[in-house]
Amino acid sequence: AQSTRIAVTPGDGIGPEVVAEAVRCLETLRAKHGLDIEWTRFPWPSHAWHEEHGESMPADALAQLQKYDAILLGALGDPGPMDDPDRYLLPDSISLAPLLDMRKGFDQWVCERPARLLPGARQYLADERAKDIDMLVIRENSEGEYVSQGGRLRKGTPDEVATQMEVFTRKATDRIIRYGFEQARNRAADRVKEGRTRTFRTLDGRTCESQVCLVTKRNALRYWGDMYTEAFDEISKEYPDVATHHELVDAACMKFVQSPWAFDVVVASNLQGDILTDLAAVLSGGMGVAPSCNLNPTDPDMPSMFEPTHGSAPDIAGQGLADPTAMLFTAARMLEWLGRKDPAVAAAGKELFDAVAADLAENSGTRRGTHEIGSAICERLSQ
Amino acid sequence: AQSTRIAVTPGDGIGPEVVAEAVRCLETLRAKHGLDIEWTRFPWPSHAWHEEHGESMPADALAQLQKYDAILLGALGDPGPMDDPDRYLLPDSISLAPLLDMRKGFDQWVCERPARLLPGARQYLADERAKDIDMLVIRENSEGEYVSQGGRLRKGTPDEVATQMEVFTRKATDRIIRYGFEQARNRAADRVKEGRTRTFRTLDGRTCESQVCLVTKRNALRYWGDMYTEAFDEISKEYPDVATHHELVDAACMKFVQSPWAFDVVVASNLQGDILTDLAAVLSGGMGVAPSCNLNPTDPDMPSMFEPTHGSAPDIAGQGLADPTAMLFTAARMLEWLGRKDPAVAAAGKELFDAVAADLAENSGTRRGTHEIGSAICERLSQ
Ligand SMILES: CC(C)[C@H](C(=O)O)[C@@H](O)C(=O)O
Ligand SMILES: CC(C)[C@H](C(=O)O)[C@@H](O)C(=O)O
């Protein structure tokens, strides 16, 4: 069998620092279990590469990356000096473009962001039930609001009209909704294995052990809102064991703050999912702990991409201060994903997750540097 | 001078119950101060009207309403029996349509939702600084994502494509941004009057007494994101006394939860503003206290519309249990708005606000019915 190959792209700012800790943990796990994994480091996409070559990554970047089973990305974006508004504003759309290029190029049609408030993570909500937050937000990652169609008529004049088209296909809608139901089932099965259950009630009074909540804005964005709803209602019939629920995106955001513990799986469009996943990240303790997975679950020739939800934090870059926790949770998720082919790799992912979670629970509140946290977790893994 | 005329549209569910208390308070204030205001009650828009006439309001509804200076709306929406998913899902787009019709018909191009966590209101965030939340979210209310352009190609087939066009004009962009800066100035002036100040730092290190934060998603929705940003940068030059700030909508939602006390005025598009205002409503205590103002500040012949942010709450309708606080804050906002023509009316609005706030502070946590709360506030006003 071929070994599992990982493309490591540290990126900008704190990216290289947190990625270094992830690689140390991977190396520890590889040595310990004799895992058949290897990794290659790329200097792109990055701001540094851009400054030298005039583009964030080489023209054949996607072709190079496609040979790997997964991409582990640190963070992108170098906003330039904070006190220069022009440089501060400009580069975002350039430096973050590779993210969108990879999602599109590798048809990573699922963006999956789990939100669980683990012991030790910062709790922003006053209600103690926040401890029970355990949801998975599944974002459609291939189309919708992000198709980049549109333009600016009479640009720069008082009569300017800017348009942006949202395009949704039934095919992409069906697959993301079906993926949501499958994940709901998987989560219910995992809970049973762990000896815990959750109960959700359907509108017609039945109880189920999992739930999918579909988020749209169908009362204002009617066309795709209706298509999403019809697809959801149809596909839900194949999953009578999963409770269903609808929310409008504004109400969903409110309920994420008021009663996030009531959600299980949430399916949303590209933009609405972007918003909901950032909210979900806060609910699970903030950017310091939130992983993000861009997945292509259907085409084995396409690598999936794993990145922490946080940015490149240029204000603390290069100082060894960044918390690598989110990056390490991300690496754990990556191993679990890659473990679909190799159970030993999946087990290593679980082991990494447990080690990071244990470290978080024990050391929350203590001031430690990037390397110190990485070392503590590597030590845990070596035991 | 002509008297100030208010069209009262109680609507559905708890709408009529909370509107009744608002009218009692208005009547108390009218009698007390000899205010020159009068109101007329309309049975539409409502579900009941729809059942009888097959439409939520008469064909000439807007023409009838246009004769008034303001519209005070209770709540719309009757979702039908909760245990019937079909009826539960259907009527939203029908019963809430009049909201959008009025906003469009009267060119209510500003939707303004203040968020202040008043004493007695429910605090969802753990951080005590939540008490300092004091922001005003200004939502573009006339175009953008809400133009209802688009359609469904090959509807209902596996090859379906649904499109939704977003249309933004520079004219509407300029006016909403300028409105935001004006409000920032007004708020700073009001703070000075009340003997308190806030300090905001600009990117180039100056300090200002107010701030406008522009929210877009310009790294993904490029065309109007860029136009908004250019308009913002240009107009901000006319307001060197106001600090400016940019956020992407996903980051803005996160920061609303992490540090909402850092915001002053927030300007956003129709959909993104819809989401942000719902979040802002939670931050200020939830739906029980949140007013919503749909304003046309430019055309004196067009009535503005005032509604609580909450819905019609059919589950508790008809039982006298609904909290009228949001409705009363909404009525206070309406009087303040109408008071632009008549200072006595503005003063009455301030008086109503103070009475509702005092009642909230004193009685938070006590269980009282709709009428009981209304009576307590009327009594306060009569003193
Ligand atoms: C950088 C940006 C384009 C991206 C997105 O909107 O998808 C980011 O916010 C994310 O969620 O990964
Ligand atoms: C009812 C709905 C169309 C409306 C909107 O999206 O504008 C509501 O959510 C609001 O915020 O007033």
What does the radius of gyration of chain A come to?
21 Å
Biggest interface between chains: A-B, 74 and 75 residues
- CATH hierarchy class name of the largest domain in chain A: Alpha Beta
| DSSP summary: helix tally of chain A | 13
Task: Describe it.
- Two copies of one chain form a homodimer.
- By secondary structure, chain A is of the alpha/beta class.
- Chain A folds into two domains: 208 residues, Isopropylmalate Dehydrogenase (3-Layer(aba) Sandwich); 162 residues, 3-Layer(aba) Sandwich (Isopropylmalate Dehydrogenase).
- Chain A is built from 13 helices and 14 strands.
- In chain A, the strands form three sheets. A ten-stranded mixed sheet of chain A has the order 2-1-3-14-13-4-5-12-10-11, with helices on both faces. In chain A, strands 6-7 form a two-stranded antiparallel sheet.
- In chain A, helix 1 crosses helix 11, helix 7 crosses helix 8 and helix 9 packs parallel to helix 10.
- The longest helix of chain A has 24 residues.
- Chain A is globular and about 50 Å long.
- About 2% of the residues of chain A have low confidence.
- The interface between A and B is large, with 74 and 75 residues.
- Bound molecules: 3-isopropylmalic acid (2 copies).
